[in-house]
Amino acid sequence: MKSRNVVRLFFTTLLIGGLSTLITSFFVKNDAYLKFMNPFDWFEILGVVLFFLTLGFVFSLISQMGFFAYLTANQFALSVFRSFWPMIQIVIIAFALFDLIYFRYKSLEGGTITTFILSAIALFVYGFIVAAIKAKETNKTAFIPALFFMVVITSIEWVPGLRTEGGDYAWLMIVPLVICNTYQLLILHRLTEKGAKK
């Protein structure tokens, strides 16, 4: 991939992360805006908007670091484990989903496990759909790596949000992570194809 495409991927993903976090904040952290609505204080609201936009840029950078770290680790694992790597990835996916449910539930006092089960199922189903699209647009062997990236890497990137008190920042973080990861995964082969043609 040419350096121009790398720069384009970086800034586009950065913008997607910022905007998706900002939009999510209207729903998840609407109290941060409401307290400056009556009386209306545009300067404070602008400050809140810039805060969530910047926070989104940070989430985007986490997503991009995870993406390029996975690309490197995947190539290394392929050379070491060879034909066993897809099976190992399936086992790690199962463990990551179990971790999202059981260990999160055990780390919190009280609460219901249903929320954790639903969030893990939602991440898996969404990852399955994205992986199917990736496999359809490239080749069948891309399915498991794409599913691994969407489930396992997204879960690892989500850890800082999961450790916060309450659930606001966990939900505020997962939306841009999922969107940025989806974008990077589905745009990569298009950028590399363009680079190969030129």
Describe this structure in a few short sentences:
The chain is 85% helix and 0% strand. The protein has 198 residues and is mostly helical. It has one domain.
Can you characterise this structure?
With 198 residues, the protein is an all-alpha fold. The protein has one domain (3-197). The protein contains 7 helices and no strands. It has helices at 3-28, 30-34, 42-81, 85-107, 113-137, 143-162, 168-197. Helix 5 (113-137) runs antiparallel to helix 6 (143-162). The model has no long low-confidence stretch (mean pLDDT 90).
Biggest sheet statistics = none
Q: How many β-strands, per DSSP?
A: 0
Order of helices and strands: HHHHHHH
- Shape estimate: globular
Give the percentage of residues in beta strands: under 5%
**Amino- and carboxy-terminal Cα gap:** 10 Å
Instruction: State the helix count.
Output: 7
Structural class, please? mainly alpha
Low-confidence spans: pLDDT under 50, at least 5 residues? none
Q: Which radius of gyration do the C-alpha atoms yield?
A: 19 Å
The total number of structural domains is: 1
Mean pLDDT: 90
User: In percent, how helical is the residue content?
Assistant: over 70%
SSE blueprint:
Elements: H1 3-28, H2 30-34, H3 42-81, H4 85-107, H5 113-137, H6 143-162, H7 168-197
Helix pairs in contact: 1-3, 1-7, 3-6, 3-7, 4-5, 4-6, 5-6, 6-7
Protein name: KinB-signaling pathway activation protein
Keywords: Membrane, Transmembrane, Transmembrane helix
Organism: Gracilibacillus marinus
